[in-house]
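Box 3.1 A note on notation
Throughout this textbook, protein chains are presented in two layers. The first layer is the amino acid sequence; the second is a token string describing backbone geometry. Keep the layers aligned when reading.
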Amino acid sequence: MEYTAEDEILIESKWQDLQRSCEKICKSEEDWNFIKRAYFLAKEAHQGVRRRSGEPYFLHPIAVAKIVVDEIGLGVKSVVAALLHDVVEDTEYTVEDMEHIFGKKIATMVDGLTKMSGVFNADTSRQAEYFRKVLLTLSDDVRVILIKIADRLHNMRTLGAMPHNKQIKITGETLYLFAPLAYRLGLYAIKTEFEDLCMKYRFPKEYEEITRQINETSAAREEYIRKFNAPIIEALDKNGIQYEISGRVKSAYSIWTKMVRKQIPFSEVYDLFAIRIVFQPLTFPSEKTQCWQIYSSITDIYTPKPDRLRDWISMPKANGYEALHSTVMGPDGIWVEVQIRTQRMEDIAERGFAAHWKYKHATISHDEDEFDKWLKMIRTALDSPTENAVDFLDNFKLSLYTSEITVFTPKGEAKKLPYGATAIDFAYEIHNKIGNSAIGAKINHKIMPITTVLNSGDQVEIVTAESAKPKAEWLEQAQTAKAKRAIKSFMKREQEHNYQRGMQMLEEHLAKLNITPNNRVIRKLIAAYESNNKEELYTKIGAGIVTLDNLEKIVKTNSQNKILKFWKLFIKDDEEEGDEESADDKKTTEEADLVVAECCHPLPGDSVVGFKDPITHKIFVHKSTCDELNRLASQHGECIVKEAIQWSQFKTQSSLVTIEIVGIDRMGVLVDLANVVTNDFSINMRQVNIQSHDGIFEGTLSLYVRDAESLNALQERLRRIKGMDSVKRVNNQ
């Protein structure tokens, strides 16, 4: 179907808009012709196709190209690749056609942007494989990732046309992978917009309420910023500094996550904004010196908070971010964050990778920086043959650190690790052989367990032994992708060794009993030794977890009924095929099918989402805010349950929840707590743990409650107890 005259007018308008944006990157007639050829080919290829919203599909690649040039700052080749990014996937054109018409580089970029197709292994997520293919392009051209982020950004901006279950899938992917990836690539504005758009579609009421409150308080906030800035402006003008000063409000998502994490109302979020000073540096002294001089001028006016000084100039973040952050006490007793950086640092903060590369090349610097090291780490991970796509995606997510610490080797070499990293991570950061043979660590010259969490500034030496080897529980302690990957790789090799040894041991024992290891015998042993399959059985035998002392008794026992029962657990009914759902399939909210997720412990009345496990087919009920749900949606988005989850079957049950409380200690506070819980709400308490120190009490209450509504009412009543400072629900582990 051809586009209408109105469609053609709209497309032409957007094309003219894109051309105006491209004026800053097109240096020759050849550049313009390159972009125009891509435009006309893509327009012809997508002719007549419409998006779900009804608008011409071709508006999407034009919008992606505009984001690429305006918001990320890429060049001509990236605009061409953005215009063509869906041509190979959705039309008759091939990658070979792209190479013939536009050259090898564009063909490679378009191929990297083309979605996966074909059949995958049953245990591999289609989405995870797709992400892995996209990330493989890091080996050749990081611009492909940036165009993919632009593609996702436009899809998020037009997400309103999608059904709700698709919105959950796409926002889950975005929060789990694309927002952290944008952050790691230095695209702060895009990362913030990703988060805000995810909140808008997942939690529309909360988004509208916070946006309304931000707007209502804007006049008072702007007046305060003027009052705060006045003496700073006077000092900077006096010193002859060329600068811009502005106040930026935190995003709705950032405010909301703080409200949820601390369980406080909007009125108690005090750090709603930050002051940013961006200046043009002089040729002498250095940028770093000038930043500290401005910091000194500000702290002559306002008293700084010592523990909130962040020096990312001396040691930039891994994504290239540089700035000096300080929190100072402003007028009316309000803490205000001040960010100081040069125009170069501002460009890198706003444009991320593109600006980072521009300045790196401009200074002819060939030193490997933190960003280069990260790319090298990702390429190494992509080349790893030991990981399936889902494991890779989880480990890749771990590399997108939002907080970092710096620790030192015994010789004083600095190593950057994520916040919360342990000595295990440090050992594997040095070398896999060191990690695999680690038994402990000297942290600041004191022997400590290898699982000890490190702090920024620690000096660490790893203690090793030849007979040592990684333990399975290390996977829970390790925080870096590199450490987890190395531990899994070792465990896999160990498991394969145990598998071969266990199979050989079983065959030898059965031979002594003159028994042939056929399927009937193996099934009987699997059930007897509580294994899921023969691989697990052999591995347990090889590892010494299972002994074969009672082998003869098990094999010669007539256990036909047990075998039948075992098979009943594992045989799937495949009679129903095709797109039509059977009556049983449609009963997605029956109690027998629903399982309350252990990761977030939702209560009846909580906003929840169902996730149908692709293996067990059980529906796990997660809170809408659950981080694990975002991870699952990013890998198995097709398993998000469309139907609303009904809580009626749970209403006769009580769920265990834990409430964390903090307040000012006084005589009788425990009696007041007990009265509210037992007398006012008739709630059964399982455990009370309260400690008092220095006039402050803190502790937890473990309670059995029926639903979220009664829990919220209880929390609100507890907050009104005299001296109570904080009441919040925590997940039971």
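Residues 115-124, 559-592 have pLDDT under 50 and may be disordered. The longest strand covers residues 655-664.
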